[in-house]
Write a structure and sequence with these properties.
2 domains, 12 helices, single chain, two-stranded antiparallel sheet, mainly alpha, 434 Repressor (Amino-terminal Domain), globular
Length: 258
């Protein structure tokens, strides 16, 4: 990843100082990122991918040339035809469900002093991955990256910006002990009309069990979950890994199945 970043910068005759400003860090800090001495944050990777005209997935995997979409679709269809008996999980983002789930979380527990952006991101992760393990279906189906701070929804920043623009929520910064904490205030009620009773039940259960977690506790807990452990840094977390979870994290009663 760091070699690829340096290659992109040099190919485009761009200085480290220039890219440092693009991701809002100092030049020495950027140099650490490029040399592999500091991990790149998801937000920084998103900004760099956008700057170089690449998707986040291609940027993180070091792909300069993006194959035409039609070829990708054909290869996927071919793979499915060859492996009809194999269940393949391909997360499909359901943006509207993401928005309404976020608003519902904010309505229920967003005002609690311990509930900031970091907790909300991990809570959405557990909603998605627990539902998939339990029912083998996707409730939101967002894509998540293994970040130093825990599982991070790739599209979170983009969706929040859109919601802010639409007047659905307001971002605020408050002090939580000695740290600045980013929070969101909902400006409308969540619309759960497109959610099944089963989906609502799981979301309520997740909110209840994590409502007292702060960012540190949530981070440490998520770091013990098999899907997060099995992913590489800044790479997508595989939904299928939920079926290898330890008893502490599993939400499915496998012993009752034949």
């Amino acid at each position: 990843m760091t070699t690829f970043l340096k290659k992109l910068r040099q190919q485009n005759n761009i200085s480290q100082e220039f890219l440092a400003k693009k991701i809002s860090v100092s030049r020495p800090t950027y140099a650490q990122v490029e040399n592999g001495d500091r991990k790149m944050l998801v937000e920084e990777a998103q900004k760099l991918a956008l700057f170089f005209g690449l998707s986040l997935d291609d940027f993180l995997s070091g792909k300069e040339n993006i194959e035409p979409k039609i070829k990708l679709e054909k290869s996927v269809k071919k793979a499915r035809k060859q492996k009809q008996e194999t269940r393949i999980s391909v997360p499909q983002e359901k943006v509207e469900k993401f928005k309404e789930t976020l608003l519902y979380i904010l309505e229920r527990i967003g005002a609690r002093p311990n509930i900031g952006e970091a907790v909300v991101c991990k809570l959405i992760y557990f909603i998605d991955f627990d539902y998939y393990e339990k029912f083998e279906e996707q409730i939101i189906g967002a894509k998540y990256i293994k970040n130093h701070f825990g599982p991070t929804p790739v599209a979170f920043s983009e969706i929040v910006k859109q919601m802010e623009h639409d007047g659905d929520l307001i971002p605020v910064v408050k002090k939580y002990f000695q740290h600045d904490q980013k929070k969101y205030l909902p400006r409308r009620s969540a619309n759960l009309s497109n959610f099944s009773a089963q989906e609502k039940e799981l979301i309520d259960w997740e909110i209840e069990r994590f409502k007292d977690f702060n960012a540190t506790k949530m981070r440490d807990y998520s770091h013990k979950d098999v899907p997060w452990i099995g992913a590489n840094d800044l790479q997508l977390i595989d939904y299928e890994a939920v079926f290898s979870r330890t008893d502490e994290f599993s939400v499915r009663q496998y012993n009752d199945e034949l």
